[in-house]
Structures are given as C-alpha cells and as structure tokens.
Write a structure and sequence with these properties.
two-stranded parallel sheet; 4 helices
Length: 207
C-alpha cells in the first residue's frame, strides 16, 4: 500500500472570486455610478500550490497521519501474509512426509485457500479505507482554503485568485503573488485540535 500522500491539486480549483460586470451602468447609485469593476480594472492574484502543500501546517499534519495509517495497514498485511506463507510451507512439508490423509490434506488446502482469499479482501478493504480518508482530507483542505480566502478577500477585493502549479500559468507577475500572506493566514487560523482525525486502522480481519 502506498503511504505517500498526494493531496489533489484539484483542491485548489475554482477558488476565483467572480467579477461583477458594469454593463448596467445606469443602475448605479444616485450619482449614476456603476456597481462593480470593469474587466480591465480587475485585480488578480495567485497562490503557489506547492508552497501551500509544503508549508501549511494542516497539510503537514495530514501527511503524517496518512503515512501512519498506511504503514499500519502495510505492517498488518505483511504479518498476515507471512503467517499464511508459513502455514503453506508447513503443509507442503507434511504432504512430503505423508503426514496427512487425503481428507485431511483437502481440508487444510481448502482452509489455506480461504485464508488467501480473506487476505486479498482485507488488502482491498484497507486500500479503500485509506482512499476514503485521503478524500476526506482533500475535501477538508479545499474547504479550509476556500473559507479563508472568502474572509481574506473581503478587504483585498481581488476579482480572481488563481492557483499556480507547474506550468498551468505560463507567466505571472511576482507582484501578484499572495502565497506568503495566504500561508501565514491559513496557519494562524489552523487549530490542530479540530482537524479531521484519520480513522483508526482495523487490526483484525473481518471474518
């Protein structure tokens, strides 16, 4: 089972704040001024996704929890697998020494096959649980950033706040980079005691 956490970059998609058009200029206030701003006057900022992933304390904590969960699952599966291999080896030795009757051999073989099927089912279940937990963390990450930016942008009044990762933005003026402010704000607002706790690993095979 892969223990490396990869938060979905999609968690940052759709964070832009909508720009209001001034097409209806006559519907402004008493002085006839329009509401909103024209497109050419729109303020745009961007955030470096990689920096958030590496510096946001929430991401760091979640990576540790997912790595722990993944390692627990891996160790549990390894233990079960080693026990099954040992049982299969003992069975083969018993067959070679004519230790079993035909009925006994068939019964033991059927039991080993069942254990192998159970182990495969356990592996699939633990992998599904791990994926579910990671999906929950990604959603929590997305929500925390969305909520922070909604408050942050009340004063900044950016029309769009873009997520920059790799070459998805071909060029951006560094003056529009608000990554540091966002990370500082996110970490200030982050309360570790309230983070989503990873589900405890089940250590026994369901029978």
């Amino acid at each position: 089972m892969k223990t490396k956490i990869f938060f979905a970059a999609a968690a940052f998609v759709g964070m832009g704040v909508g720009i209001t058009s001034c097409n209806n200029a006559g519907e402004g206030g008493a002085d006839g001024s329009a509401k909103g701003a024209s497109a050419k006057d729109a303020k745009i900022a961007y955030v470096e996704v990689d920096s958030i992933m590496s510096q946001y304390e929430f991401c760091k904590d979640m990576e540790k929890e997912l790595e722990k969960k993944g390692m627990n699952s891996q160790q549990h599966l390894q233990s079960k697998g080693q026990a099954l291999q040992a049982a299969a080896a003992n069975f083969q030795q018993g067959l070679q020494s004519n230790k079993y009757t035909q009925e006994q051999a068939q019964s033991i073989q059927a039991n080993l096959q069942k254990q192998n099927s159970d182990l495969e089912a356990l592996q699939q279940r633990l992998a599904a649980e791990f994926q579910t937990t990671q999906d929950e963390f990604n959603k929590a990450l997305h929500d925390s950033i969305q909520n922070f930016l909604a408050v942050y942008n009340k004063d900044k009044k950016y029309a769009y706040i873009l997520s920059k990762q790799g070459d998805n933005i071909l060029w951006a003026d560094p003056a529009n980079d608000i990554t540091k402010e966002v990370i500082e704000g996110l970490n200030k607002a982050y309360k570790p005691g309230k983070k989503i706790a990873a589900k405890e690993e089940e250590t026994e095979t369901k029978k």
